[in-house]
Amino acid sequence: MSTANSPEDQRLVNKSSWKFSKAFWTANIVELFERAAYYGVFIAITLYLSRIVGFDDIEAAWISGVFSAGLYFLPPFTGAFADKIGFRNAIILAFALLSLGYFSLGAFPYKAVVLPSLIVLMFGGSFIKSIITGTVAKTTTPETRAKGYSIFYGIVNVGAFLGKTFAYPIRIELGLTAINYFSAIMSFVALVVVILFYKNVNSQGEGKSFQEVWGGFVRVVTNMRLLTLILIVTGFWIIQHQLYATMPKYVLRTVGEQASPEWIANVNPAVVMALVMFITHLMKNIKAVSSMAVGMFLMPLSALLMASSNLLESVTGQSVSIFGLFSAHPITVMMIFGIMVQGLAECFISPRYLEYFSLQAPKGEEGLYLGFSHLHSFLSSILGFGISGYLLTAYAPDPATLTPTQLLTAYDQSYMIWYYFAAIGLTAAVALLIYRWYYQRKDLKAAVN
């Protein structure tokens, strides 16, 4: 007679735990399309705003930063609205907004139209962030939730990878404007899939009102322990956001138009996908803040690697042979190494940050608090992109603003940009050590008393 713990029963449990509802699979499929659309546009957003729309580097940086920041700030609030109108209605609204936003962004490249288009995209994207994660939560059981979120996490990374992969040949063959049409098509296909296959899921019992969400936000930002951590981790994400803020223009201006910042940026999700589970397991017995500290000290190293391309070029010249198979510019090589270290740092920081953040929440409010756990990305989007605009103007200016004589030496000091970000990363890493020391002492005193 078999027992509840027999291999046969375990096999049946494992088999059944991979069975998810149609709503779950539909949500994950359209998440793939949405991420491909978003990252295809986002990797080229500052390029598009400058080259096609006509904003200068500083203006394009601030606009892109506010757009990105809104996507991190709004989801708890749009999630509350989604609970009120139902997930199906909300996700249809979201993809309708995204389809319209991406199309208008490409079709009407005028300053007066682009800004409203980005606002439409910001609200559409913020709905998606809350609805898809909410659908995963509501269509899984305690036994299947871990696998459900692992599928979701994998889909997000695959979508991001594909979006940037397609963006490069589209930019080269069809131009920057065509990327917006690619994203509009992806969003419209997702809209059709949702209309045909997404059935409403029960959104009763777990949703929060706007008042409750705002109350949670106030409690998070008035919790000095959490607020200090958010500000410190912002230093990490300021450097991370340079994949989209600084790197595309920097690479194209210093290496040339045939360079592929879109593919270079894909190094990050590739490293995270390959190593995050291993590193999380490796550090499982290490305190969360200590694991985060490892990642924080890796980030300035990543920026220093990016800054060292001139040293490599002094040895190899403008072409580095990669195992005799192909060659790459020293800037490309060191950018890849730097981004690899960034991905490694993210593996140490991101999972443990969420763990630590959730432990600081009052019992029963973990979900509400985690809704604001990405406030660091809200801040780092604004600050990271904003700083990027000024540094590009100073060290790697738009070639359209330079004379032929100025172009000869305009980028000789361009690598200096990354020293600024290395300094920001190092400051944040040291601040985290001080934070850990202070709160360990405080917790010890509280335990003794």
Protein described:
This protein has a two-stranded antiparallel ribbon. Strand 1 and strand 2 form a beta hairpin. The radius of gyration is 23 Å and the shape is globular. It is mostly helical. The N terminus is likely disordered. 78% of the residues lie in helices and 1% in strands.
Annotation keywords:
two-stranded antiparallel sheet; mainly alpha; Growth Hormone, Chain: A; 22 helices; single chain; 2 strands; 78% helix; 449 residues; 2 domains
Task: Write the SSE topology.
Blueprint: H1 7-16, H2 22-42, H3 45-53, H4 57-73, H5 75-85, H6 87-107, H7 111-138, H8 145-173, H9 176-197, H10 210-221, H11 224-240, H12 242-245, H13 247-254, H14 261-265, H15 267-282, H16 288-307, H17 309-316, E1 320-322, E2 326-328, H18 330-359, H19 366-370, H20 375-395, H21 404-407, H22 416-448
Antiparallel strand pairs: 1-2
Largest sheet report: 2 strands, antiparallel
Quaternary structure of the protein: single chain
**Structural class based on helices, strands and sheet pairing:** mainly alpha
End-to-end distance: 55 Å
Task: Write out the strand line-up for the largest beta sheet, numbering strands in chain order.
Answer: 1-2
Number of strands: 2
What is the strand content?
under 5%
CATH homolog superfamily of the largest domain: MFS general substrate transporter like domains
CA-based gyration radius: 23 Å
According to CATH, what is the topology of the largest domain? Growth Hormone, Chain: A
Order of helices and strands: HHHHHHHHHHHHHHHHHEEHHHHH
Specify the CATH architecture of the largest domain: Up-down Bundle
The low-pLDDT segments are 1-5
Number of domains: 2
Average predicted confidence as pLDDT: 90
CATH domain class of the largest domain: Mainly Alpha
What is the helix tally?
22
Helix share bin:
over 70%
Gross geometry = globular
